[in-house]
Write a structure and sequence with these properties.
single chain, mainly alpha, 2 domains, 4 helices, 54% helix
């Protein structure tokens, strides 16, 4: 969804109004567009592996010291610049 919103923002286009509280039905052009942009955000094939690596329970939230990074520092130092 974030990539879809970004597309509209960068194209200086208003987001189409939608008063239906339900998600778009499968197979509709809007549904296909959002799904395609969602898959783009996964940065396949490597993005899923990186996500799983960072979310694994053995990766500490805070570094154990001795210059070894924790999840928080890796996210801020390495991953945030990609998201930004």
């Amino acid at each position: 969804m974030a990539f879809s919103v970004r597309d509209f923002y960068e194209a200086n286009q208003p987001i189409p109004p939608d008063t239906d509280p339900n998600p778009p039905r499968a197979g509709t052009p809007l549904y296909q567009y959002i799904v395609r942009r969602l898959l783009d955000s996964f940065n396949l094939p490597f993005g899923i592996g990186r996500y799983l690596e960072l979310m694994h329970s053995s990766f500490p939230d805070v570094g154990p010291g001795f210059g070894l990074p924790g999840r928080a520092s890796v996210m801020v130092r390495d991953e945030w610049p990609h998201s930004r």
